[in-house]
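During the reporting period the student researcher (J.K.) took over the structure-prediction task from the postdoctoral fellow and processed the backlog of single-chain submissions. One of the processed entries is reproduced below for the supervisory committee.
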Amino acid sequence: MKSLRDNIDSSYIEAANKMRSKQSRRRIVAYVESYDDIFFWRTVLSRFENENRYFEVMLPSRLNLSKGKKPVLMNLVGKHVGRDMFACVDADYDYLIGGATRLSKEIINNPYILHSYVYAIENYQCYAPSLHNVCVMVTLNDHPIFDFNRFLRTYSEAIFPLFVWNIWHYRQGNYARFTMTDFNRVIETGNINIGNPGATIDHVQRKVQRKIRALQREHPHAGDDIEKLATTLNLLGVRRDNTYLYIQGHYLYDKVVVPLLKKVCSRLRQQRENEIHRNARHGTQLRNELASYNHSTGDINVMLRRNTDFNNAEPFLQLLKDVEQLLEG
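J.K. obtained the following structure tokens:
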């Protein structure tokens, strides 16, 4: 039976690797936060496997995770990671708040802790250029009826100024005055009309500006800090056109992208079914074709969860660079 030390100490794994034959591949353990993270980090790390090394992606299953996945992962694994054992985590806000907390410092400064750069893996799954392909997988209809790139770009432009204020509060240690939940309430899109998405953006923008005015009254001397922080966030990869990648992943997934995909996919399914109705020569053929089509279509959540079409996303490329540098070090 493996000891607990095998789960939490890189030196133990390194020693075990040295005991293997020269022909054996080096084993590198990659601990992740949750079951949902295993597939993502496997897709990241598998491209770095070769005849000399392989990765084993797993949960720290022998540890008590009841108090929250990331705190336990950092407390019990963070000090023990090394050449043969990595921790792989969602960045959350920890990457952006610049070491304002112990956890943030750990993630930023420990080279053996790999983080997603974007808030969470859900943000990658919702990568705008990939969403049309998700619709195709779900509906088997390649008709581009909605511009996901434009929508999420303009949505990002609308929310970016308030996002800076939200990060500022977290960096100040004053997040209770403007929490992530508060921020999410303001940027709520509501019912998106896919025929007129600009109306949704205008609505969000009005709410954002109203909240910013309130924050400016509450913090009249924060203007210079906010401008400097906006510049700093740009250097960290957060731009006006891609802010959606850095907001809370579950919110983006559940409240923005999935409702939007449901509407677009419903329209695409209806188009395909109308086409089948037009082309069917008799009732039997119609029933068979509809049954075959409905059997072949997919579930939005399943397809989105398995979406890996984010290889060209800038933060993902930076993540790959980090892995490469770590392995070369």
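The committee noted the following: Strands lie at 26-32, 53-58, 85-89, 113-115.
J.K. will present the remaining backlog at the next meeting.
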